[in-house]
Design goal:
The structure holds 2 protein chains of 2 kinds. By secondary structure, chain A is mostly beta strands. Chain A has one domain (2-59): Ubiquitin-like (UB roll) (Roll), CATH 3.10.20.30. Chain A is built from 1 helix and 5 strands. In chain A, strands 2-1-5-3-4 form a 5-stranded mixed β-sheet, with no helix packed on it. In chain A, strand 1 and strand 2 form a beta hairpin. In chain A, 28% of the residues are buried. Chain B is an alpha/beta fold. Chain B has 2 domains: 2-68, Beta-grasp domain (Ubiquitin-like (UB roll)); 75-260, Rossmann fold, CATH 3.40.50.720. Helix content of chain B is 32%, strand content 20%. Chain B has helices spanning 18-25, 60-68, 75-80, 91-103, 135-146, 164-168, 181-192, 242-260, and strands at 2-5, 8-11, 29-32, 35-36, 48-52, 83-87, 107-111, 151-155, 173-176, 199-203, 216-221, 224-228. The longest helix of chain B has 19 residues, at 242-260. Chain B is elongated, with a radius of gyration of 21 Å. Chain B starts with a strand and ends in a 6-residue tail after the last helix. In chain B, 42% of the residues are buried. The chains are: A mainly beta, B alpha/beta. The interface between A and B is medium-sized, with 18 and 38 residues.
């Protein structure tokens, strides 16, 4: 699949929540668009990824 | 022939030079097409001029015209009818609101639940006299002084996923200006889920005193722009400092302005 413009291999069936956790990302600090549609945080665990998916993962750091 | 001076029609003889008009108005400053000029040119029919006498408070109507005169042509008209939201009125949001007010954005919707405390003064657009005031009130007071010709709507409330759409539903653009990364992500997710909904200009990574050149504006999704260096988090040993926070706020305000003018490129 494609994440933030880069091709990444999908190693097996996994949810969006699994993918983020595997990359060490805190799901509470990201906004994710999948195939052009925003994925609500509540749906991260139920969103099964497909190797044709195009993801945009925007993570935020603190400060303002 | 007729020209416009300070928003009012005025008859002048053909061939009149601006210097003659300057004497008649005791004006120190001449603004022509959004540009302050010291040239002595021959007036053209239909020309719009703003003539300002320094040290004098002009009548309200002329003041509005004089303030708008420094915007590039057409910008004032485009932003005067626009509505922009600012979520969080700390280091980012207070500066964003000031910049947008100066730019003449006609309606600002400002939300923050907190009051001004001494730890805010190192980077936020407040002063000693604002300590203890809700940030909404402290900022509205300053904006009324900076540009009394815009509408400022304040909400002293904690912005979250369940009220974001109701608060900012009428905005063309919303600037995310929170401190907490989870709050940032929550607001962005909530507003992008609205379709149609406002464009979002968020911020991530502006702590410390690293190069200001590392702070950029990037379009990350169709309706999401993110300003900042993307990585410098506020943490122990790396505090938030006025210059970089203000640079990031200015990036956000500029992107909001560009979007209001129909420019979608970051």
């Amino acid at each position: 699949m494609k994440v933030n413009g880069e091709q990444v291999p999908l190693t097996g069936p996994m949810s969006l929540a699994d993918y983020l956790a595997g990359r060490g990302m805190d799901a509470a600090r990201v906004a994710v668009e999948r195939n052009g549609e925003i994925v609500p945080r509540a749906a991260f665990a139920d969103t099964q990824l497909d190797d044709a998916d195009v993801l945009e993962v925007v993570s935020f750091v603190g400060g303002g | 022939m007729e020209i416009m001076v300070n928003g009012k029609p005025v008859q002048v003889a053909a061939g009149t030079r601006v210097s003659a008009l300057q004497v008649a108005y005791s004006a120190d400053v001449v603004i022509r097409n959004g540009y302050q000029t010291s040239a002595d040119f021959v007036l053209r029919a239909g020309e719009e001029l703003t003539l300002i006498r320094k040290g004098e408070l002009p009548p309200r109507e002329a003041l509005s015209h004089m303030m708008a005169a420094r915007h590039s042509p057409r910008v004032h008209e485009a932003v005067a009818g626009a509505c922009v939201g600012v979520a969080g009125l700390g280091g980012l949001g207070s500066h964003i609101a000031v910049l947008l007010a100066r730019t003449g954005v006609g309606r600002l919707i400002l939300a923050d639940y907190d009051v001004v405390d001494p730890s805010n003064l190192n980077r936020q657009h407040y002063g000693i006299r604002h300590l203890g005031m809700p940030k909404t009130d402290a900022l509205a007071e300053q904006l009324a002084d900076i540009n009394p010709f815009i509408t400022v709507e304040t909400h002293t409330i904690r912005v979250a996923a369940d009220n974001a759409a109701a608060l900012f539903g009428e905005c063309q653009v919303v600037c995310e200006a929170f401190d907490d990364p989870a709050c940032k992500a929550e607001l962005v997710g909530a507003l992008l889920a609205q379709d149609p909904g406002p464009a979002l200009v968020a911020a991530s990574g502006m702590a410390g005193y690293g190069s200001a050149n590392a702070i950029t504006t990037r379009r990350r999704m169709k309706r999401l722009y993110v300003c900042g260096d993307g990585e410098t988090e506020a943490q122990e040993g790396c505090g938030l400092m006025a210059p970089r926070v203000a640079v990031c706020a200015a990036h956000q305000a500029n992107m909001a302005l560009r979007l209001l003018l129909g420019l979608e490129e970051a």
